Amino acid sequence: MSTESSRSAALLSIGHAVPPHRLLQSDASDAARRIFAHRYSAFERMAPVFTTAGIRTRYTVRPLDWYFSDLDWPERNAAYLDSAQQLFVDAASRALADAACAASDVDTIVTVSSTGIATPSLEARVAGVMGFRPDVERVPVFGLGCAGGVTGLAIADRLARARPGATVLLVAIEICTAAFRMDQLTSANMVATALFGDGAAAAVVRTGGAGLARIEGAGEHLWPDSLDIMGWKVDPTGFGVIFDRAIPPFAEDHVGAAVDGILSRIGVAREAVDRFACHPGGAKVITALEATLRLEQGALDHERAVLEDYGNMSAPTVLFVLDRLARRGLPKRTVMTALGPGFTCSCLSLATAA
Hints:
The structure is a single chain. The chain folds into 2 domains: 3-207, Thiolase/Chalcone synthase (Peroxisomal Thiolase, Chain A, domain 1, 3-Layer(aba) Sandwich); 213-351, Peroxisomal Thiolase, Chain A, domain 1, CATH 3.40.47.10. It contains 13 helices and 13 strands. Strands 5-4-6-7-1-8-13-12-11 form a 9-stranded mixed sheet. The protein has a two-stranded antiparallel sheet with strand order 2-3. A two-stranded antiparallel ribbon has the order 9-10. The protein has helices at 3-7, 25-36, 43-46, 49-52, 73-98, 122-125, 127-130, 148-162, 187-195, 247-265, 283-292, 301-310, 317-327, and strands at 9-17, 21-24, 57-60, 108-112, 137-141, 168-175, 198-207, 213-222, 231-235, 238-242, 275-278, 333-340, 344-351. By secondary structure, the protein is of the alpha+beta class. It is globular, with a radius of gyration of 19 Å. Mean pLDDT is 91; it is low at 1-5.
């Protein structure tokens, strides 16, 4: 084993899970028309987002009719707690099995989620079912939004390298549909209703040895005066999405330079990147990323496929993309990217022996 490999953390496996209710985008569009068209004067102007979002199906924790009821914050968060626990178990169990690990082998758990409140946090709630040890270390992380998959993996990497030989489990879970709002007659709510789905992904990280790839380094870029681009506002009904500035043009104008800066700081040459694995925030975001990263249009094909099949699940989505790439064989160097509230860009570089 090389010195470099023994000091680096390896990504051993990825697992993912979705809830049981499959939502066709055509059904979501029809439902939105029934709910909003007679109350929202701009609905016809916004309605095309259901067909231009690049989504065919999504998965939700509750059947479609549930979202039509008069839901308050406790009901929404109860749905989050109930469903997030099962998704945690499903995704984590698959990742551990693929890594040939038992839950009792896990030394540290990083749980990333921004779509509900859980105290005790999710990993504590499922500890008995999973079989985690009583001395397992817990790192729950809230507020990263769509950047959570990449930043969470970077946190897992740092924890693994701090304790060589320790097994670190990352689980990213988002129940985005708990924030579907029938009372918000805004363009941001229309976009959210057309884009978001529910899901979870997990990864196992450990220093030394072989795995899917070696984690070379990670970094972030936070833009000043950008709090209004993406986030949550909170009221008695629950979370409401903030999209006060259009994300695709911002991404096209700024993300490429930010990624170049991160790569420079972690010592990865831009021309040495074989594949970007990007969080697919939406069809227009993917196109903007291809432009800003100087890729051929259509290069982010797995991103489009994940978006089409699952919608935007926030933090876990980029791990769904990485899983698809890994199952087809990762190239020598893959750089993961995701954008999230802050407004921030998170990147992580993976290297293989290919």
